[in-house]
Design goal:
Oligomer: single chain
Distance between the termini: 40 Å
CATH architecture of the largest domain: Alpha-Beta Complex
Number of helices: 7
Shape: globular
CATH superfamily of the largest domain: H-NOX domain
Strand order of the largest sheet: 3-4-6-5
Number of domains: 2
Radius of gyration: 16 Å
Strand content: 15-25%
Helix content: 40-55%
Structural class: alpha+beta
CATH topology of the largest domain: H-NOX domain
CATH class of the largest domain: Alpha Beta
Length: 182
């Protein structure tokens, strides 16, 4: 069974309360309880791991309860700022988007125990391929796309675009993300 670290839930909780005010994540928990019979923890132990399917179900519940249509993208941006600043702030000013995102694929294992990344880069371009992630979820791919874009911007890159050119949710063998910047 694919698992995700407690930090994924804690970041989602922070984001929900940031987006919709104190108590917003409690509304998400209520939705999970009412619609799915899931009793989600109120406090996430720092070293705990949960089923990845529970994480994406929680993500969808938050989207449904809190909206807006750009919820997944907003969460991806928030996650990049929070996670990168907490874990890798020192690296941002010393690197390019390619260097950071190539090294950042090592961060993946801090959040999920399935999925492997392959990164190919050229000047001002990057192609990241995610294989064997434990769930297929188009909304989470939107999160990853937005996370990558915001992380690249945090290195000082301008005019960043990230496209999700192939997706397992659409039948592709792997998820492919292509980024460009100047």
């Amino acid at each position: 069974m694919a698992r995700s670290a407690s930090i994924t839930f804690a970041t989602l909780q922070r984001f929900c309360n940031h987006l919709a005010g104190a108590g917003a994540f409690e509304r998400v928990r209520e939705q999970l309880r009412e619609r799915h019979g899931i009793e989600l923890d109120r406090i996430f132990a720092p070293d705990a791991w949960y089923p990845t399917e529970l994480f994406v179900t929680s993500l969808d519940a938050a989207h449904d309860v809190l909206g807006p249509p750009s919820f997944y993208e907003l969460y991806g941006e928030f996650g990049a700022v929070h996670e990168v600043n907490v874990l890798f702030r020192w690296m941002l000013r010393l690197t390019s988007p390619s260097f950071f995102l190539q090294r950042g694929t090592g961060m993946w294992g801090r959040f999920h125990d399935t999925g492997t990344w392959t990164i190919e880069s050229a000047p001002r371009q990057l192609r990241g391929t995610l294989r064997d992630f434990g769930v297929v979820h188009a909304g989470y791919c939107r999160v990853v796309t937005s996370w990558m874009k915001r992380a690249a911007q945090m290195t000082g890159a301008r005019d960043v675009s990230v496209m999700h050119s192939q997706c397992r949710a659409s039948g592709a063998e792997a998820c492919v993300f292509v980024g460009e910047w100047r």
